[in-house]
Amino acid sequence: MPEGLVPVTLPKLGLTMESGSVSRWLRKEGESVRVGEHLFDVQTSKSANECEAPAGGILARIVVGTGIELPVGALIGVIATGKASEADLSAFITNYQPQTKA
Question: How many angstroms separate the CA atoms of 58 and 79, rounded?
Fold first, then answer.
């Protein structure tokens, strides 16, 4: 993973959760975010949940808008913690592979 870019992924919010959708983004691309601050809401078949920013920096890209059903671990946004070019950001998104737990 390139330095300075942090993936924002659809979190697993319960043992049986396999998918969900972003119901609301609280920041726009280019706005600053703090680690742990409420960044977006996720809707699952069972509930709605507030989700926190995994890092502080700039919300460089919202990859997925609201209302699109996605599997847990899908890339939904990218936070830039340092300088990143548009080419770096595009390559990061194109090459992103969800982390799998053993």
Answer: 5
Dist CA 83 CA 5 (whole Å): 9
Residue 88: which H helix or E strand, with range? helix 86-95
Question: Tokens 């890209």 — which residue?
Answer: 61
What phi and psi values does residue 91 have, to the nearest 5 degrees? -65, -40
Place of tokens 């996720």: 42
Return the bridge partners of 24, or none: 41
Kindly calculate the radius of gyration of the chain based on its CA atoms and give it in whole angstroms.
13
The pLDDT tens digits of the residues spanning 15-66 come to 888 999 999 999 999 999 999 999 999 998 888 899 999 999 999 999 999 9
Retrieve residue 36's tokens. 């742990």
Strand order across the 57-62 sheet: 5-9, 75-80, 57-62, 32-33
